[in-house]
Design a protein that fits this description.
By secondary structure, this protein is α+β, with helices and mostly antiparallel strands. The chain is 20% helix and 35% strand.
């Protein structure tokens, strides 16, 4: 017996507190359940008016070292990609995120804490049917050596990524994953952001990375990793790049059915790819989906064709 997948939100409010990676200040966010068809909304609690920003690709205004969204009044929230990645993996459609300032907490530099705490808060199905964006024609964006594409796949979200840094500790790597909640938790969620010690002073001079530390970032210095505990995975770097991709692409406003392929893609390339997809209406369609049981670990079981219902 099959049933249409419903939209989801969280059952209980959840609070996170920590340091902002770039601003260096204390940051607090509160996740609040939200009604159907609202999407993911950020609310700057330090602003009295015009403080709501929808998490959407059209609202991305900066991709320098992180993803920043803004509203038409110039109110911003930055470094949202790790939180958005966890939200995407958990298939959450509607959520209000109250933020104490201009940047969300970096926590341990991965999405592990976000994923675990949101899971523990409880995720509930709502009354409206969930819509997915299904890629039906390949779309690519290339910027120099950085490339990203979305192409048709079976009813899954597949990710294939290639990484190639000119660095002794980061060599040519490939990684592929057919995304679901279980393998996200086990393979992707705990992969941390990384940076290079020689760039740290320059970033601080530019007003960035003020909150960066060995507690929230893998730091590479020549042929050494400065973190005493080393890496969580031997290929933690490419896993984190995939974590970022998942967060950036959830700014489509939908869970994706398609195959993402990235070659050294970053926040800018990921956002430009979404712009190209939505500029070509023949490249995608919106569908409802059905599952054969309540077990949605693989997320997708059956497409309901040509049906776009709220």
């Amino acid at each position: 017996m099959t049933s249409l997948i419903k939209q989801k939100t969280i059952r209980n409010e959840t609070i996170f507190e920590g340091r902002a990676l770039h601003a260096g200040v204390k940051s607090k966010i509160k996740l609040v359940p939200l009604e159907c068809n609202k999407g993911i909304l950020f609310v700057r609690k330090d602003k009295n008016i015009n403080n709501v920003i929808k998490a959407n690709w059209e609202n991305v205004t900066s991709t320098k070292l992180c993803t920043t969204i803004s509203n038409k009044f110039g109110v911003t929230v930055s470094t949202i990609e790790h939180l958005m990645s966890a939200i995407s993996a958990l298939q959450i459609d509607n959520l209000k995120i109250e933020v104490s300032g201009p940047e969300v907490p970096i926590l341990d530099g991965s999405s592990k804490i976000y994923f675990e705490e949101i899971s523990n808060s409880g995720i509930v199905s709502q009354e409206k049917n969930k819509q997915f964006i299904k890629i039906i024609k390949k779309v690519s964006f290339i910027n120099g050596s950085s490339e990203a594409s979305l192409s048709p796949s079976k009813n899954n979200f597949d990710i294939s990524y290639k990484l190639n840094y000119n660095h002794p500790l980061i060599k040519k790597e490939k990684y592929s994953i057919n995304l679901n909640k279980n393998n996200y938790k086990n393979e992707i969620a705990s992969a941390r952001t990384f940076g290079f010690f020689e760039e740290y002073k320059k970033l601080k001079k530019d007003g960035l990375a003020k909150g960066a530390s060995l507690n929230n970032c893998i730091v590479l210095n020549g042929k050494k990793i400065l973190n005493k505990t080393g890496l969580r995975f031997k290929n933690e770097f490419i896993r984190h790049k995939i974590l970022d991709v998942i967060g950036d692409l959830h700014l489509s406003g939908y869970s994706i059915l398609g195959h993402f392929q990235g070659d050294k893609s970053g926040h800018s390339t990921n956002n430009e790819l979404l712009k190209k997809v939505f500029s070509d209406k023949s490249s995608y369609t919106l569908v409802n989906m059905s599952v054969a049981s309540k077990k949605e670990n693989n997320i997708i079981a059956l497409q309901i064709p040509n049906q776009i219902a709220s």
